[in-house]
């Protein structure tokens, strides 16, 4: 199979597009409105999953458009052949507006001075689609008052090349079960919407957490990231999930060397691990340069259906595990995912690293090839090291 020839190292991530499709369909069913437009958030290489492959699968599963953080990410998707609407959620540079126009990418308008600057750069035949960003309490980018919104709206209407396509805001606490702050933000957004002369085509405010928990934040479009990847926006939301979510990302390696060591023998840099009795050790070709960072020392992986701890310091390209029994090289090792009755979830890794699940697939670096699974079978491999351009 072609897929097997596209990388030459026994470490890979599997991206299960069947799970992605199921998650999207379940979320769409939960929203239960045919008019609702769903934007799949594929910023940061689709949270580390692979932007083009996720975008294609998400569009096939019925999402309306895509959202990214930066203009480069949007252009990359267009170059990959994506024709669906794309919105850049973050700030773009005013001097790059013609690029957005050329590639038919919608940008975020978050400040009147930026808009004035943008209009100076825009070529006469260019057309720029804009979504106004309201900062209702996130404190990141956006306009903060109804007054400012009125000014921005009339400025956009005064420039014929501008099209006011959307308006949106973003919640700081949608993943917390206490709604006080979210309600305040939603109230502010509604107040701002009320001063518009005309509502644009897209009005949106929900991220995954708000999509799953708060129907009154849906308006007519939603932006779904983490839930599409099968991850719960927060631990407290696990209790109230209205739809099942299936993890899309898993991570594997193979034993490339095994040996029996004697009591007193030591393992890895600093010789910090010492065998207390005879013990089998396996080496796997993944290390901190792959995003499998040193703090994961002690984390368990699954080999031969059993949990086995990483022992000694994690090196740049390799680490060692204590094996439950003598095993041969070539044995599959599951770092994230299921093997038999055992599973290591992304949430478990996030817990070990004292961070949120969002961060985990994002930090698995481009050196790790991604294998895409469809209908239960591998269909494509991406390997940034071997891809041209
Ligand atoms: C990243 C992002 C999202 C997606 O958030 P999830 O919690 O992953 O669903 C939505 N909106 C904005 C503005 C974002 O930056």
TrEMBL record:
Signal peptide: none annotated. Keywords: Isomerase, Pyridoxal phosphate. The lineage of its organism: Bacteria, Bacillati, Bacillota, Bacilli, Bacillales. Transmembrane segments: none annotated. The active site is at residues 43, 269. InterPro entries: Ala_racemase, Ala_racemase/Decarboxylase_C, Ala_racemase_C, Ala_racemase_N, Ala_racemase_pyridoxalP-BS, PLP-binding_barrel. The gene is alr. Belongs to the alanine racemase family. This is Alanine racemase. It catalyses: L-alanine = D-alanine.
């Amino acid at each position: 199979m072609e897929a097997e020839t596209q990388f030459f190292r026994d470490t890979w991530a599997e991206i299960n597009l069947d799970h992605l499709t199921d998650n999207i369909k379940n979320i769409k069913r939960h929203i239960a409105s045919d008019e609702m437009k769903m934007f799949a958030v594929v910023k940061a290489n689709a949270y580390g999953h692979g932007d083009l492959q996720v975008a294609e699968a998400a569009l096939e599963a019925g999402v309306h458009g895509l959202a990214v953080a930066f203009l480069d990410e949007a252009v990359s998707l267009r170059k990959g052949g994506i024709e669906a609407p794309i919105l850049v959620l973050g700030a773009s540079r005013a001097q790059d507006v013609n690029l957005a126009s050329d590639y038919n990418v919608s940008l975020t308008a978050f400040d009147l001075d930026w808009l004035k600057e943008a209009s100076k750069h825009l070529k006469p035949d260019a057309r720029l689609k804009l979504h106004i960003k309201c900062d209702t309490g996130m404190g990141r980018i956006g306009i903060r008052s109804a007054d400012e919104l009125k000014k921005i709206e009339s400025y956009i209407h005064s420039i014929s090349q501008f099209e006011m396509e959307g308006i949106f805001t973003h919640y700081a606490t949608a993943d917390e079960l206490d709604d006080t702050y979210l309600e305040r933000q939603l109230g502010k957004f509604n107040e701002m919407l009320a001063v518009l002369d005309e509502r644009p085509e897209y009005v949106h405010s929900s991220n995954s957490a708000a999509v799953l928990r708060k129907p009154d934040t849906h308006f007519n479009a939603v932006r779904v990231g983490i839930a599409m990847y099968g991850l719960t926006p927060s631990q407290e939301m696990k209790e109230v999930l209205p739809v099942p979510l299936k993890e899309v990302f898993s991570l594997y390696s193979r034993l490339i060397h095994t040996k029996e060591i004697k009591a007193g023998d030591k393992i890895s840099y600093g010789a910090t691990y010492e065998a207390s009795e005879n013990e089998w050790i396996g080496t796997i070709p993944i290390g901190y340069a792959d995003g499998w960072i040193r703090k994961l020392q002690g984390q368990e992986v699954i080999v031969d259906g059993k949990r086995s701890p990483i022992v000694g310091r994690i090196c740049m390209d390799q680490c060692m595990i204590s094996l439950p029994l003598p095993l041969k090289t070539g044995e599959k090792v599951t770092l994230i995912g299921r093997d038999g009755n055992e599973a290591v979830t992304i949430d478990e890794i996030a817990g070990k690293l004292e961070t949120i699940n969002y961060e985990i697939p994002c930090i698995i670096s481009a050196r790790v090839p991604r294998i895409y699974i469809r209908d239960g079978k591998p269909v494509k491999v991406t390997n940034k090291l071997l891809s041209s351009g």
